[in-house]
Amino acid sequence: xxxxxxxxxxxxxxxxxxxxxxxxxxxxxxxxxxxxxxxxxxxxxxxxxxxxxxxxxxxxxxxxxxxxxxxxxxxxxxxxxxxxxxxxxxxxxxxxxxxxxxxxxxxxxxxxxxxxxxxxxxxxxxxxxxxxxxxxxxxxxxxxxxxxxxxxxxxxxxxxxxxxxxxxxxxxxxxxxxxxxxxxxxxxxxxxxxxxxxxxxxxxxxxxxxxxxxxxxxxxxxxxxxxxxxxxxxxxxxxxxxxxxxxxxxxxxxxxxxxxxxxxxxxxxxxxxxxxxxxxxxxxxxxxxxxxxx
Length: 294
Prior knowledge:
Elements: H1 12-30, H2 37-46, H3 54-69, H4 94-104, E1 115-121, H5 127-136, E2 141-143, H6 150-165, E3 170-176, H7 181-198, E4 203-208, H8 211-217, E5 222-223, H9 231-238, E6 241-242, H10 250-262, H11 267-292
Parallel strand pairs: 1-2, 1-3, 3-4
Antiparallel strand pairs: 5-6
Helix pairs in contact: 1-3, 4-11, 6-7
């Protein structure tokens, strides 16, 4: 929703940028995606509207902020996922509670699956694209925000261990990160620590960002950070350029993750449990309607 809080005049050149940003964000909002400012910036870069420089990114971020305040860009299509307000759920009646429970009820469809799948991403900024997919397939999702803490890795490792050793499932980790010195090393780090903390073998799949995707989608490059302690090994393998995961089109990211998950799912078993879930939700709805009629 667009909502105006200030009066602001923009130059014709800035207005053109604002209209382009509005068109891009509306397009993705219609598809069910919200973007971070960096993702929006990469859409400008991919369309050859802006060069991939820090100066241009900073300028665009400032323009977007002013345009939203002036009521020219929707507030709902750009998210800041680093700052989250938490609230407590409350209900007027038990019938309202049961209705909310029924709307969120999910049968454990992974109970009849041979695999256990988790999705990890280096950047929380991509949560708006990846979380809906993970929720659709009821897969645990972790946004690491760079190198993950030992506490987080330990907790996930122990859960993965219980899935493998107690539930008898084969663990698969789907990972996405930047193609730069630290981003490549983070894959190694996550795989190593999850293997250590789960006390056994895991199947690790780095599905993005990979060189083939960079070439296929002609992604904008950045210079590799030579101050990074891992730069030497990275440059020896890949050269002096690096690429950010955010540069991938959100719909492309959606397709990549969906393919990776569904390749590991027993779809007939999933569909059987989905039908049972629908039947159970209908039964609970009948009980709720009886309560509301009393």
